[in-house]
Amino acid sequence: MPIRLLPPTLVNQIAAGEVVERPASAVKELVENSIDAGATRIDVTLAEGGQALIAVADDGCGMGPDEMMLAVERHATSKLPDDDLVRVKFLGFRGEALPSIGSVARLTLTSRPKGAESAWSLSVEGGAKGEPVPAAHPHGTRIEVRDLFYATPARLKFLKAARTELTHAADVIERLGMAHPGIAFSLSDGGRKVLDLAAKRGEPAAARLARIAQVVGREFEPNALALDSERDGVRLTGWAGLPTYNRATSAAQYLFVNGRPVKDRLVIGAVRGAYQDVLARDRHPVVALFLELDPDQVDVNVHPAKAEVRFRDSGLVRGLIVGAIRHALAGAGHRASSTLTGVALGALGSSGAAPPAFGHYPPPRPSLPLVRAGINAQAPIGLAEQVLGLDLPPAAPAARADEAEESAADYPLGAAKAQLHDTYIVAETAQGLVIVDQHAAHERLVFERLKLGLEDGKVARQGLLLPEVVDLGEAGAARIAERADELARLGLGIEPFGSGAVVVREIPALLGDGDVQGLVRDLADELAEWGAATALEERLLHICATMACHGSVRAGRRLSVPEMNALLRRMEATPLSGQCNHGRPTHVSLSLADIEKLFGRR
Questions:
Q1: Which residue among 20, 181, 323, 600 is least enclosed by CB atoms within 10 Å?
Q2: Environment class of 393 (CB within 10 Å of its CB; exposed 0-12, middle 13-18, buried 19+)
Q3: Is the whole-model pTM more than 0.85?
C-alpha cells in the first residue's frame, strides 16, 4: 500500500481518541481553557451524563471572531508565547482539544471579549467548520458540545451509565477547584446542581484549606496536618490527614504540580511509605499535596491528556514528600482523629452500630467485671518498668485507686481512674475522659523505642536464662538461619538447632517476657512471603512492628495505677502514639459535652 497523508477529519478523530476518552475528559479540557482565560466563575451543565450535552460557561477574557476561527484549528494556541514546550505555564496548551472535540461531536462556541460591543458564535459539526455569526452573550465564553461521539459511534459503547459519567465529571471539577480556590465552580445535570463550590477569598493557604474541606468533607480540616517543606528548589505545601482519619481507597489522595491536578504512581508510593508504620495495609490516608518547582524539572507532556507527569529528579520529590509527612505525623504526637469521637458516640448510642472502618478491636471479655483501677492488681510491674524505662515502686496487691493519684488537669491524656475488662484504661482529663487500648498504646511505645535503637545501632539485648528452642520445620529454620546476621541487628540472637529448629539465645531487652516462640514463627512466615531476593534491610521497620506486637502489654493484663499513669505519660511524650503499628487508634476522647449529650443533658 502506498504511503499517504490522512485527511484532516480523520487526524482530528485520532487526536480525539487520545484526548477525549469520555465526557469528563472534554469537561477537563474546556474547564482548563476557562481557567487559563482568567475566569472567576465557571458553570458546567451535563445532560445524559454528557453524551447529549456538555455546556461550559465562564466570565473570562473571551474571544473575537478571528480568534475563534483559529481556536478550532489543530495546534493553534495562545499559551506558548515563546514556543518553549518545556516551560509550560498554563493548564491547556496542546491546541488539540477544541478541534478534536469538534471532530466527534457538534460543537458551538459563543464568546464576547471584554469591551466588545457584541458576541460571536461559531459551529463545528463532525469536523466541518462554519463561519462566525453575531450572537447575544455577556462577556466571557460559552462552549456547547452536543451528541458526543456521534461521528465515531463505536466509542459510545464504552461509555458507562449517565450517573457514572456525571460522577467522573464531578471529580474533574473538584480537583481543578481544589487547585484554584479563588474561582467559583458549579456542575448541573440540567435539573439540579450536583456541585456548587463558592469562591474562597482571603489568605491563600486558608482559602485552599477551606476549598479542600468543601470537597473532602468538613471533618478534614480538624484532622489535617499542615505541610510546608522545601528542598533544592522544590517546595511542598498542603495537608496530610491523621492516620486514624483514613479511607478504604486512595481516591482521596490529591496531587497538584504547579497548579495542575495529576495522578502519579511515584507520589502514591511515597504517601504509602510515609504512613507505612501507622496505617493498616488495607486503609489509605487522605492527603492534598501541592508541589511547586521550576517547569524545567517536570515534564507535563508524557500523557496526551496531561494526567501524568515525569519528574527530572524523582528521588528528590519522593524524599521530600516522605520526609514532610513523617515530620508532620511525628509532630502530632498522641493526637488522634476527631471522627473517632463520633464513632464512639454512635456505638454507645446504638448497640447495632457498624464497627469502625479503621480496623478490628480486640473483643472485650464480658465475663470479667468492671475493675476499679489497681484493686487486687497482682500482676508484677516488671514489664512496664522495663519497657517504659521508668523507676516505679512495687504495687501492693490491694492498692487503693486513689493512691499516687495524678491530677487530671496536668496532662493531655489525664489521670488513670479505672481499668475495664483488663484491657482498656479510663483516664479523666480536664475536658472529659479518655479510653485507652493498653495493648495498642504499648505496642506503639515499644515500636518507637525499637526504631530509635535501630537508628543508633544500639538495640539493647538480654540473654535468656533458658534459651528457647523453636521448631519451624526444615524450610522455616533455613530461612531464619540465612537471615541470622541481619536479625542480630535487631537484638535477636538466633542459631540453627538440629534439624528443622532454631535456638533463641538473646532477644531485645524491650521485649521483656514476650512471646518468643510466636515472634520467631511470625518472622519465618514473613520471610517466606517476601522471598529470598528481598533484603531484610528493606523490611526492618516491619520486623520492628512484629516484635513490638509480641513484646507489648497484652489485653487481659491487669495494671496498677502507677503502671497505667506511666503508660499515659509515655504516650504523651512519644511521636505517633495516637495509633498502633497496624493503624488502629490507641485512644478515644470524649468531652464532657459529648457525655452530657449521651444522658440528655444537652
A1: 600
A2: exposed
A3: no
In this structure, how many other beta carbons lie within 10 angstroms of the beta carbon of residue 5?
7
Q: Are the C-beta atoms of 71 and 63 separated by less than 8 Å? A: yes
Alpha-carbon gap, residue 156 to 167, rounded angstroms: 17
Dist CA 464 CA 36 (whole Å): 69
Rounded Cα distance, 62 and 135, in Å: 13
Angle at 162 between CA 160 and CA 167, to 5 degrees: 90
Residue 56: name the closest of 125, 140, 148 by CA. 140
Per-residue DSSP letters for 34-94? HHHTT-SEEEEEEEGGGTSEEEEEE-S----HHHHHHHTSTT--SS-TT--SSS--SS--S
The SS3 call for residue 104 is helix
Query: What cell does 231 get?
Result: 528542598
- Residue-wise pLDDT for 108-122, tens only, equals 999 999 889 899 999
Phi-psi region of 97 (alpha: psi -120 to 50; beta: other; left: phi over 0): alpha
User: What value does the mean pLDDT take over residues 367-388?
Assistant: 35
Task: State how far the Cα of 560 lies from the Cα of 553, in Å rounded to an integer.
Answer: 13
Check if the beta carbon of residue 43 is closer than 8 Å to that of residue 186: yes
Q: Indicate the burial class of 483 (C-beta count within 10 angstroms; 0-12, 13-18, 19 or more).
A: buried
Q: Judging by DSSP bridges, how do beta strands 260-262 and 371-372 pair with one another?
A: unpaired
CB 179 within 8 A of CB 259: yes
